């Protein structure tokens, strides 16, 4: 016969509680810029057009001067 004791058996350690969800990463710069451009559509398109015209003007001017 095997000896038995009346002492309670120790409980196994409780599993680790699930880790809380990691904090959501901040929005990327590109995502914020796109959101801003959508909310200020007309102004963004106007500035894009002016920038494009200025860049084309510089390129045409340089092409004319260096021909």
Annotate the secondary structure layout.
Elements: H1 29-39, H2 41-65
Helix pairs in contact: 1-2
Main β-sheet description: none
Average predicted confidence as pLDDT: 82
The residue fraction in helices comes out at 40-55%
Total E-strand runs: 0
Question: Low-confidence runs (pLDDT<50, min 5 residues)?
Answer: none
Shape: rod-shaped
Q: Report how far apart the termini are.
A: 109 Å
Q: Which structural class matches the secondary elements?
A: mainly alpha
As a percent range, the share of strand residues is: under 5%
H/E topology pattern: HH
Written description of the protein model:
By secondary structure, the chain is mostly helical. The protein has a domain at 38-65. Helix content is 54%, strand content 0%. It is rod-shaped and about 105 Å long. The chain starts with 28 loop residues before the first helix and ends with a helix.
Question: What is shown here, in short?
Answer:
The chain is an all-alpha fold.
Can you give keywords for this protein?
mainly alpha; 67 residues
């Amino acid at each position: 016969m095997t000896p038995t004791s009346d002492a309670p058996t120790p409980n196994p350690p409780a599993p680790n509680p699930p880790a809380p969800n990691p904090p959501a990463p901040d929005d990327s710069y590109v995502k914020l810029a796109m959101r801003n451009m959508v909310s200020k559509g007309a102004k963004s398109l106007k500035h894009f057009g002016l920038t494009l015209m200025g860049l084309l003007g510089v390129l045409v001017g340089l092409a004319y001067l260096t021909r």
